[in-house]
C-alpha cells in the first residue's frame, strides 16, 4: 500500500516502551529497541508495524508478515515466527486498540477541515454566545444565541450549534452536524452529519382523519465520553429528556426516538432504530439493523443479536436474538428446527422426482 497521507506514520516508539504502555509482556528483550511507527494487518505488515492476532486462523498470513512485533495471547504465540517479537497479553484486542491510539493519535477523532485556528473569520458566532478560551470554530460554522462551549472543543465547518445549547470541554463537533436543545458533556465526539435535538415523531389523531403534531419540549442530555456516529439522529424528548449515558458509543445511521434513555457504556451498532420512551440499562450491546419497540425496558448487560426485532421487555443479563427477539437458546433452537424441516422437505421432493 502506498504511503497514507491521511494518517502518516508515528516518529517512532520503542517496542519496550510500547509494551509497558499497553500492559503487555515482550517475549524477547533483545527487540526492545525496535522502533514502531504504525499498525497494519498481519498479511501485509512491514518493518516498523505492529499487528495483532486473535486466533490460529491467521497462520497462513504469517508467511508474508514482516512486522516488528505481533500482539497475541500466549496460547497462540508458538505459531509466530522466531524473528518477530511477541507482545504477550490475555487481551490482544484491547492492547492493539491502546497501541493504535498511541501510534495514530490524530485518527482517534475527526480531524481539522481547515488550517485555521481559533474562531475563523468565516464562522458566525452570535454576540451573546459564550466561548471559553481555546474553543476553535471553523469557517461556515454557526453558533447560536446564548450557546455555551467549553475550552478545547472544536466545531468543524458547516456545523450548527443552536440557541442556548451547552457543550462541555474537549469535544469534537464534526462537519455538518447540528445540535439543538441539548446539553453535551465533556470529551464527546459527534461525527459528520449527526442530527441531535430535533423534535421527535409525535402525532395525535385529528378530527378529520389527519394527524395533529404533538409539541416536543424536552431536551437531549449527552453525558461525558459519548461518541455519536455519522448521520445518526437523536430526537429531543416530548416533555421529559432523551438521555445518552456516559461512555456509550453509537455507530453511524442510528435512530434514537424521543424520551429514550440509554445507560452507561452501551454499544449500539449501525442502523439500529430505538422507538420512543424505551429505557436501556448499562452495558447493553445492540447488533446492527435491530429494531427496538417503544415503551419497553432492556435491562443491564443485555446483548441483542444483529437484525433482531425487540418487541417487549428484556431481563438484565440476557442474550436475545431473532424476530421477535427471544432468548438466544430458543432462537438458535428454532433456527435448527427450521433448517431440519427444510432439509426433510427437500429430501421428500427429491424422492418424488426420482
UniProtKB/TrEMBL annotation:
Pathway participation: Bacterial outer membrane biogenesis; LPS lipid A biosynthesis
InterPro entries reported for this sequence: Hexapep (IPR001451), Hexapep_transf_CS (IPR018357), LpxD (IPR007691), Trimer_LpxA-like_sf (IPR011004), UDP_GlcNAc_AcTrfase_non-rep (IPR020573)
GO molecular function: UDP-3-O-[(3R)-3-hydroxyacyl]-glucosamine N-acyltransferase activity
Catalytic residues of the enzyme: 258 (proton acceptor)
Cross-referenced PANTHER family: UDP-3-O-ACYLGLUCOSAMINE N-ACYLTRANSFERASE (PTHR43378), UDP-3-O-ACYLGLUCOSAMINE N-ACYLTRANSFERASE 1, MITOCHONDRIAL-RELATED (PTHR43378:SF2)
Annotated PROSITE patterns: HEXAPEP_TRANSFERASES
Gene, per the UniProt record: lpxD
EC annotation from Swiss-Prot or TrEMBL: 2.3.1.191
Task of the protein: Catalyzes the N-acylation of UDP-3-O-acylglucosamine using 3-hydroxyacyl-ACP as the acyl donor. Is involved in the biosynthesis of lipid A, a phosphorylated glycolipid that anchors the lipopolysaccharide to the outer membrane of the cell.
Entries under Pfam families matching the protein: Hexapep, LpxD
Domain of life: Bacteria
Residue ranges occupied by any UDP-3-O-[3-hydroxymyristoyl] glucosamine N-acyltransferase non-repeat region domain in the UniProt entry: 33-101
Lineage: Bacteria, Pseudomonadati, Pseudomonadota, Alphaproteobacteria, Hyphomicrobiales
Name the UniProt record assigns to this protein: UDP-3-O-acylglucosamine N-acyltransferase
Keywords: Acyltransferase, Lipid A biosynthesis, Lipid biosynthesis, Lipid metabolism, Repeat, Transferase
Species assigned in the record: Sinorhizobium psoraleae
Family named by the database record: Belongs to the transferase hexapeptide repeat family. LpxD subfamily.
Subunit composition and interactions: Homotrimer.
Reactions accelerated catalytically: a UDP-3-O-[(3R)-3-hydroxyacyl]-alpha-D-glucosamine + a (3R)-hydroxyacyl-[ACP] = a UDP-2-N,3-O-bis[(3R)-3-hydroxyacyl]-alpha-D-glucosamine + holo-[ACP] + H(+)
Amino acid at each position: 500500500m502506498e504511503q497514507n497521507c491521511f494518517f502518516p506514520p508515528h516518529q517512532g516508539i520503542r517496542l519496550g516502551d510500547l509494551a509497558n504502555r499497553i500492559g503487555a509482556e515482550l517475549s524477547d528483550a533483545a527487540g526492545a529497541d525496535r522502533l514502531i511507527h504504525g499498525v497494519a494487518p498481519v498479511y501485509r505488515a512491514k518493518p516498523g508495524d505492529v499487528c495483532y492476532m486473535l486466533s490460529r486462523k491467521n497462520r497462513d498470513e504469517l508467511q508474508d508478515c514482516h512486522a516488528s512485533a505481533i500482539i497475541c495471547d500466549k496460547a497462540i504465540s508458538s505459531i509466530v515466527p522466531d524473528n518477530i517479537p511477541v507482545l504477550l497479553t490475555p487481551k490482544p484486542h484491547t492492547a492493539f486498540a491502546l497501541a493504535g491510539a498511541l501510534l495514530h493519535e490524530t485518527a482517534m477523532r475527526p480531524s481539522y477541515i481547515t488550517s485555521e485556528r481559533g474562531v475563523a473569520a468565516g464562522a458566525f458566532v452570535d454576540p451573546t454566545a459564550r466561548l471559553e478560551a481555546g474553543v476553535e470554530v471553523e469557517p461556515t460554522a454557526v453558533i447560536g444565541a446564548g450557546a455555551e462551549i467549553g475550552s478545547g472543543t472544536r466545531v468543524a465547518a458547516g456545523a450548527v450549534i443552536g440557541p442556548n445549547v451547552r457543550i462541555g470541554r474537549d469535544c469534537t463537533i464534526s462537519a455538518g452536524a447540528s445540535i439543538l436543545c441539548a446539553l453535551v458533556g465533556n470529551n464527546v465526539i459527534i461525527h459528520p452529519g449527526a442530527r441531535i435535538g430535533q423534535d421527535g415523531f409525535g402525532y395525535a389523531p385529528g378530527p378529520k382523519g389527519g394527524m395533529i403534531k404533538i409539541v416536543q419540549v424536552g431536551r437531549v442530555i449527552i453525558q461525558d465520553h459519548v461518541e455519536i456516529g455519522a448521520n445518526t439522529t437523536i430526537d429531543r424528548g416530548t416533555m421529559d429528556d432523551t438521555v445518552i449515558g456516559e461512555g456509550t458509543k453509537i455507530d453511524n445511521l442510528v435512530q434514537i426516538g424521543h424520551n429514550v434513555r440509554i445507560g452507561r457504556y452501551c454499544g449500539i451498532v449501525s442502523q439500529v432504530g430505538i422507538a420512543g420512551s424505551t429505557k436501556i440499562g448499562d452495558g447493553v450491546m445492540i447488533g446492527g439493523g435491530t429494531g427496538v419497540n417503544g415503551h419497553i425496558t432492556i435491562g443491564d448487560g443485555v446483548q441483542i443479536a444483529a437484525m433482531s426485532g425487540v418487541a417487549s421487555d428484556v431481563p438484565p443479563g440476557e442474550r436475545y436474538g431473532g424476530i421477535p427477539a427471544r432468548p438466544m437458546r430458543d432462537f438458535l433452537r428454532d433456527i435448527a428446527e427450521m433448517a431440519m424441516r427444510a432439509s426433510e422437505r427437500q429430501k421428500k421432493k427429491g424422492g418424488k422426482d426420482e
